[in-house]
């Protein structure tokens, strides 16, 4: 049986995220106004201080509310493994894919109320060569965009900025050979993008519909073929939920698998470059406790 979200918490906001600095005071007011007592509140503007601040908060409070984007969440998600402390997500990033996967509204006031009225559930975490992640990792065109997009373009144009930069970077991108190994059974395909999904949303869009953060499996979805036009068509059909989308990809689901590419590729973990191929991917079932909307 689910339990109600705790009514005491520590708030930690990544002031470097897209809306973090400007939204901090408002977030404090909205959370307390919704009925949660804030034991402490922190606006962190130094990336080296974020993890220590969150890990200290885990030791002090029944719930830690973290404001930031997907990269913020995945950078410390492993710190909540097997802890009684509950993680609550306040969406202050660009895409907010993990918050969307949990079912949270993106508007600040509605999200604060949803945390107060929410319930506690256990969810899985994915792991790529020791790098824990909450939502989605990717290789191919997406990591190239994540690694090279100018900060100002991301901050001021948000999702549109990603689209414009993706169109620009597409002319510098080449397809690759992907090999998926599940218990010694290997498949190889040409691919332009691969999503390693614990959750359904990537880039703010529901791309991996079969992924489930509670089923103990990782879903790997590869956009097959060599054509970037085919990749663009896959995105288009998926965004608009056209039936043709299912013919643009190949999917695998397993608790553990291995990925290889030729040539080797960097892997974007919830928007941040943190791993590369070849790699081992696994899932830890019911690893952390999170708040989800009631």
Automatic annotation (TrEMBL):
Native source organism of the sequence: Sphingomicrobium clamense
UniProt keyword Kinase present: yes
The keyword Transcription regulation is assigned to this record: no
Pfam families, per the entry: DAGK_cat, YegS_C
NCBIfam families hit by this protein: YegS/Rv2252/BmrU family lipid kinase
Top-level taxon: Bacteria
PROSITE patterns cross-referenced by the UniProt entry: DAGK
Any GO MF annotation of the entry: kinase activity
PANTHER family membership: METHYLGLYOXAL SYNTHASE (PTHR30492)
InterPro entries: Diacylglycerol/lipid_kinase, Diacylglycerol_kinase_cat_dom, Methylgl_synth, YegS/DAGK_C
Protein name as it appears in the record: YegS/Rv2252/BmrU family lipid kinase
Sequence ranges assigned to domain DAGKc in this UniProt record: 4-131
Keywords of the record: Kinase, Transferase
